[in-house]
Design brief:
This protein has 349 residues and is α+β, with helices and mostly antiparallel strands. It folds into 2 domains: 168 residues, Transposase IS200-like (Alpha-Beta Plaits); 97 residues, no CATH class. Strands 2-3-1-4 form a 4-stranded antiparallel beta sheet, sandwiched between helices. β5 and β6 form a beta hairpin. The protein is elongated, with a radius of gyration of 26 Å.
């Protein structure tokens, strides 16, 4: 059966190739340098740029931007030239590569930013190094200033936070994606659930909107379904993403140490997140929490869990005065009963 032709539209592609039977394709420094040299020469012939790369022992990742519909030509040239070099050097015969290179068209900015982190975090995931910028054969190390390398995305990517489960799922979604060409445009093929099902299954409207967008619905689709404006949907999404960012920041500080290290914001939920944010977040984290969740929601959690807890009198005084505009003294909290504790007492009696 003839192979299906690859979709080759101008734009970004994630490229992956492995050694046959997962064997090594880079054995020493000279091999890594030769591969980069071949890439550089190909970029001059075929006019493309590399926005992220990581060369591992038995495979490589590239985030490449092509300006012409010539991806197959580029990669066939690169892989063929390197295979000839490698087989000659190590006196071997047969194919070097596991098969045809794998490629995924990057169809939106969310995936583009996630892919940069995915590629650059490979050596950390493999326990080769423990921080970004150390592994010599990744673009974030900035060891090579070749004309094919465009550092625009590397320079604006946040590498301070660990690559998390949400991002992993996003990359897996990209790997599973299929595309078609309609009216000379590359379009993602999606078998979508009905838009209403997201809101039936999730009481949290912000989460439902976020999941619908991740699965491929446009903000306009969601706005129409909810009878809201596009601006309102955009604002809701922005707030939800800020909440996730704040959660990941606190998780990386070890605040959720008693939970699985892979716990997500979706799994922990607003109520528990707010509790931990108030107890263990710094002043600026708490201030951001009030902006994202609103005074009413945070006050409800605060009154139920923290107000009567004698361990947090100073914290409660600060929250009351600074964020809730309450004119109270510390004695106020000494006489307040803890609502959750009283509920447990009642259940135990």
């Amino acid at each position: 059966m003839a192979r299906k032709p690859r979709i080759e539209k101008n734009g970004f592609y994630h490229i992956l190739n492995r050694g046959v039977a997962r064997s090594f394709i880079f054995k020493n420094e000279q091999d890594y340098l030769k591969f980069l040299e071949i890439l550089q020469e190909a970029s001059q012939d075929y006019d493309f740029e590399i926005y992220s790369y990581c060369l591992m022992g038995n495979h490589y990742h590239l985030l490449i931007k092509i300006k012409k519909e010539n991806l197959s030509t580029i990669m066939q040239k690169v892989n063929s030239r390197y295979s000839i070099y490698f087989n000659h050097k190590y006196k071997r015969v047969g194919p070097l590569w596991q098969g045809r290179f794998k490629s995924w068209f990057v169809y939106d900015e969310v995936y583009l930013k996630t892919l940069v982190r995915y590629i650059e975090f490979n050596p950390i995931k493999a326990n080769i190094v423990n921080e970004i910028g150390i592994y010599r054969w990744s673009m974030s190390s900035c060891n090579f200033k070749l004309s094919m390398l465009n550092f625009e995305l590397i320079d604006v990517t946040d590498f301070d936070t660990k690559f998390n489960n949400n991002e992993e799922m996003r990359v897996e979604e990209l790997f599973k994606s299929k595309f078609k060409i309609e009216e000379n445009k590359t379009i993602k093929k999606i078998e979508l659930k009905s838009i209403g099902s997201y809101f039936e299954l999730n009481e949290d409207r912000e989460l439902a909107i976020y999941l619908a967008v991740i699965d491929g619905y446009t903000q306009s689709d969601i706005a129409k379904h909810l009878n809201l404006s596009n601006v309102a949907i955009s604002k809701i999404l922005k707030i939800y993403k800020q909440k996730v960012t704040l959660f990941n920041k606190l998780k990386n500080k070890g605040i959720f140490w008693s939970y699985s290290k892979d716990i997500t914001y979706k799994e922990i939920g607003d109520r528990l997140f707010i509790e931990y944010l108030l107890k263990y977040g710094d002043f600026y984290d708490i201030a951001l929490g009030f902006r994202l969740f609103g005074k009413r929601q945070i006050k409800k959690v605060w009154e139920e869990i923290l107000v009567g807890d004698q361990r947090f009198i100073k914290l409660n005084l600060m929250i009351a005065r600074v964020f809730l505009d309450m004119s109270v003294e510390s004695d106020y909290f000494k006489g307040v009963k803890n609502a959750r504790f009283e509920k447990f007492k009642l259940l135990a009696s």
